[in-house]
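User: Second chain of the day. Same drill as before.
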Amino acid sequence: MNVGIVIRKDCQRCANVAERVVSILPPDWKCFYDREVSRFLDVESSDFSKITLDLMISIGGDGTVLRALQMNSAPVIGINMGSLGFLSEVEIGNVESSIYSLIRGDYKIEKTLKLKVAINGEELPECTNEVVVHTRKIAKIRKFEVFVGDNFYQRVNADGIIVATPIGSTSYSYSAGGPVIFPTLDAMTVSFIAPFRAGGRSLVIPNDQVIKIYLLGTDQDSLVIIDGQKEYRVDVGDEISVSVSKNRAKFITFQRSFYDKVREKLLGNVVD
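Assistant: Same format as last time:
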């Protein structure tokens, strides 16, 4: 079993947890480490894109999970060292019991939708949560034009646009007022960040459509941000296209339902 270990950047506590996790894993499970781990522990880092991994263990927050998924296509299990940790299956108090369940194979793998993103036809890394088109300058509203397939949808003035997957609908898109979409649905949601008019409402789009976004006017320089990890500059005349990928993100889970996660993480464990 080849296991990739990924930790949050600049996190000594995460490295300590990684060391404990590795000590529990069977001796015949071979561990590979990202460069952040090697900064704190006496281990050699590896390029995950060149290794066939059976699973990845992410120790940090949701950003660390997303970074791991950018590095390799193996299933990932997240240990939450952050605040929300919606993508992280394991809380810090359950690390040992969860790793033992992992060793026993007492888990399942859930596959969730990923997005393909291109600027002027040039493909960018795929994303698991969302792609954001956002102004580069603080307090500078931008003019966007949105098409779904060949159909014009809307022009809107806003700080930005979020196109999210179902699993990403619980993240930035949710904060912007977008709907929560059940993760097994093959659909995308488009939400607007601080739209100037009330007409900038969220839209749920089926997986067979291509969303195209254009910047209108002049001096509209903006950023395309993939899963909060990678940034690309765009301006007037550029076409940003977003569609559903044939690939899927894979998460290791211990049977906890999506509704439990929404209630615990987003609604503050509200009960009647």
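The domain at 2-107+254-266 is CATH 3.40.50.10330 (Rossmann fold).

User: Great, on to the next one.
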